[in-house]
Amino acid sequence: MPVSSDVEAERDADAGQDADAEESPIDAGDGLPINELFYSLQGEGRLAGTPSVFVRTSGCNLRCWFCDSYHTSWEPTHAWESLEDIVAAVEEYEEADHVVLTGGEPLVHDAAVDLIERLDAAGYHVTVETNGTIHRDAPIDLASVSPKLSNSTPTAERDPAGEGEWAERHDDRRIDMDALTALVEDYDTQLKFVVADDEDLPEILDLLDRLRAAAAVPVPDEDVLLMPEGATRERLAETRERVADLALEHGFRYTPRLHVDLWNDAPET
Ligand SMILES: C[S@@+](CC[C@H](N)C(=O)[O-])C[C@H]1O[C@@H](n2cnc3c(N)ncnc32)[C@H](O)[C@@H]1O
Ligand SMILES: Nc1nc2[nH]cc(C(=O)O)c2c(=O)[nH]1
Ligand code: SF4
Ligand SMILES: [Mg+2]
To answer: Which Pfam families does the UniProt entry name for this protein (predicted)?
Structure first.
């Protein structure tokens, strides 16, 4: 259900005059801005292969140059849906007992908490895919946290939409150690790093050192996953072998991107 509406396009155009509002088409009362809602196999992480309903909100506080969900971050597109309608749409997939709330950055929205509470009350296992810069109190079963390394920064050369205007803001925000620490302390967590090459490893090791020093709970290597950078089969073919070797060298897990292997970059997969 890739969606948009003229009203929302107008609202976003207005919001574009304000730097903060531009980041996400945030909170028009009840409900959430939904970019797509679909049934697929979880493609990433510890639950890879699990049939799941994906609820993708629009709006993000970061701008990774490689973002595979361009229409939730760089150019947000969505329709506002009530929480009742979202839960009803999820329940239509009767085979599923897992829901993945993703984005964009789902936790920028206050109403994400209400949605997670409703899904939890309805008996679903709820995974939240988050960049780790925002902590909220909610009945999250798996916090799938993907902290962003410097390899994500939209420098002028890599900016998909401009000339690096977002680079500094992105860099300032991409790691929030307090939010990250609270997430690992409060939830069953996997840390899913997007890796392109060897140069990314020192940064991961340093971040883990800092997180382990700050957190009141252990952060075992088995909860650290290396995921190859690539939104397409062609790009993954360039990154995945080296990333698999790095996982072996460091004793971290490797996660494939099953949905990209199966369906490449098709929407609603
Ligand atoms: C689109 S993001 C949405 C959730 C949240 N904003 C985040 O970044 O974790 C979903 C997942 O896709 C990953 N991702 C996005 N673009 C990617 C790419 N080109 N290659 C590999 N992983 C990517 C993110 O790191 C995250 O784990
Ligand atoms: N099949 C599938 N698995 C996924 N796991 C995390 C995803 C995401 O975009 O957050 C995702 C996605 O977009 N598709
Ligand atoms: S944090 Fe997630 S949604 Fe936001 S730009 Fe990066 S990959 Fe895309
Ligand atoms: Mg995805």
So the answer is: Radical_SAM (PF04055)
